[in-house]
Amino acid sequence: MRARDRKNHGARPASRAAAGVARSSEPELALPPGLVMPAGKAVLGKCPPPLDVPAEIKPLDDSWRQWIVDNALRRCPADGMVSTVATAGFDPAQASGFIAALPHNPMYRAAERQRDRYERYARVMQNVQAVRESGDDYTRVERRADLSRDEFIERYVRGCRPVVITDLARDWPAMKRWSFAEFKRRYGSMTVQVQAGRDKDADYEVNKVSLRHDTNFAAFLDRVATSDVTNDEYLTASNELLRRPDFAGLLEDVGPLPDYCDDTLRHSASLWVGPAGTRTPLHHDTLMLLHTQIVGRKRWRFVSPLSAPKLYNDFDVYSPVDFEALDLERFPEAANVKVLDVVVEPGETVFLPLAWWHQVTSLDKCISLSFTNLDVPNKFDFGHAS
């Protein structure tokens, strides 16, 4: 191309024109002050951008080794595990070697035997549960009145099934006396312990000890009375308010109790006070109890202990499954769990059988009383369970 046909890119430095240096369309590099290029030497153009630096491949660590073992015991395919490890930036070759060595590891073979034993137990439980679920009314929680001691113990305690007792608290003075205003009048000057900040902690029930907070009872009751739907603050059984002598007068408003309860109410009763929206996540207790609604309604969801293999119970008595917002991507096996769903009204009492999973939501501002003084054996060993 002739010089006159080229586009004009502005004036050229005289020194370069004199030296006959070829012109470039790239911006020229500025030379440091005092530096002069030798005659006849071209100034290099702008360097191209560097090649992308490959991401560092991290060596397989113990947390990923445990993840591989967990998934290998679930019989996940090796290529899928290696792909996941590689995507996370860890060495896929190390992962492949680790997976290939698992069948020769005595600890892994022992874990396989434990898995197989667990699966046999789980199949037995699930098959027995399938028989129980075959009844047309399996998911219905019965509502009963005038229950005799014998029928309550045989049908519900030993039969291990929940029931709502509609008349247990019919003659209790608490049904007329207890209210937020009455609590404030009688005990407003007292300091109580509540769980606060629950909305900020996804594991609020597991971490309930760290959420304990002392507050004036009247101030707490005012917050409940004026609150919207929230799970942030709750006075629960773990606060043991009724063990305190200054609150013992509340138990004078409770009773008479049926003949399937003994006379140890003072040592076995717990008070629950909170706004609409307070929740107890899915878990099972380590004993049986009765739970009476004095003010407001609560929704109870029950799951049979025989369905436990589908509830992902990896820690203590808790399950991460939430039947109010079921996440089937994380917990696909929970899709096949039959849930018993019932709303307990003011004046009604629900019986919680041994080891039944349950989650509870307050539909209104609530005052409730739970008690465990059943006149039957009610202490059980759940091993690690608190």
Give a nutshell description of this structure:
With 386 residues, this protein is α+β, with helices and mostly antiparallel strands. It has 2 domains: 43 residues; 231 residues, Jelly Rolls (Sandwich), CATH 2.60.120.650.
Largest sheet: 6 strands, mixed
Give the assembly state of these chains: single chain
**Overall pLDDT, averaged?**
89
The gyration radius over C-alpha positions equals 35 Å
Q: What fraction of residues sit in β-strands? A: 15-25%
- The SSE string, one letter per element, is HHHHHEHEHHEEHEEEEEEEEE
Count of domains:
2
Shape: globular
Provide the CATH architecture of the largest domain.
Sandwich
Structural class of the helix and strand makeup? alpha+beta
Helix content: 25-40%
CATH topology description of the largest domain: Jelly Rolls
Poorly predicted regions: 1-32
State the CATH superfamily name of the largest domain. Cupin
- What is the count of DSSP helices, taking H or I runs of 4+ residues? 9
Q: What is the rounded distance between the termini? A: 88 Å
Record field, number of beta strands: 13
CATH class of the largest domain: Mainly Beta
Side-by-side strand order of the widest sheet:
1-2-11-8-13-6
